[in-house]
Amino acid sequence: MGKEPFKIIECPRDAMQGLEEFIPTDIKASYINKLLKVGFDTIDFGSFVSPKAVPQMRDTANVLELLDLSTTSSDLLAIVANERGAIDALKFDEITYLGYPLSISETFQQRNTNKSIIEALNDLEQIQGHCVAKGKILVVYISMGFGNPYGDPYDSTIVNQFVDILKSMGVGVVSIADTVGMAQPVEIEKVLSDVLAEFPEIEIGAHLHARKERVMLAAAAVHKAGVRRIDGALLGFGGCPMAEDELVGNLSTEGIIDYLHESGEDLLLDENALELARAEASNIFL
After folding, report:
1. What is the model's pLDDT at position 66?
2. Do 64 and 34 meet the contact criterion of CB atoms below 8 Å apart?
3. 245 pLDDT above the threshold of 80
4. Does the domain at residues 7-285 carry the CATH identifier 3.40.50.10230?
């Protein structure tokens, strides 16, 4: 039996959300429509959160109306931060995945969603129930999954404890996030391989941030750990505006693809469509 296909999750939402200047709705939609033609497993295209918290994403519902999903093989993922946002997102049949940021750092959970970890877990139980009722899939991002800059308690065993809690809720997809790009490759490989070994029934992903020169090393660590799901953004732009004042870029999708090709992975991506999307990204982000 061969390995399951490697899933690349393209994240224009993460790339755009920290930009202060508002990107017009039609430009967002044009870019995402180009991404939909590439063949990525999933497009993290927007979020249903407070427009005061993330003003760049206030038009997600309008962007969705402009997307051409008639021929794409990609699924759509939208981020939510509470039950109300989840209910709003679940009104749209086009959305397959809801993503929720759960932090194992109490400080960051408060900064990111203005609630405690306990309150976030209570939210997750409700959101998972709504997803099951609607036939949607909840993806939980464990942010600060490789440590945090705030001095909050951290140990890799805490990651597994949180995954175990999510397993008890019936969550089937968990992505471990290096929210501020502080993890070394050896840490990335160890944490991910430990989680995979303990929870083989859960789809484990990696959502990492890193400077440009460290993208290939981070991608290699994910691959060596056995993880088959990774998030990226073309040009490596973006990051979490709630984590630190300076945004640490996402893993560049180009770097991820280059590494995976060198490793013999067959990604089945449309290279021409990828180049067109990359050109559009240059117009938006550079």
Report:
1. 98
2. no
3. no
4. no
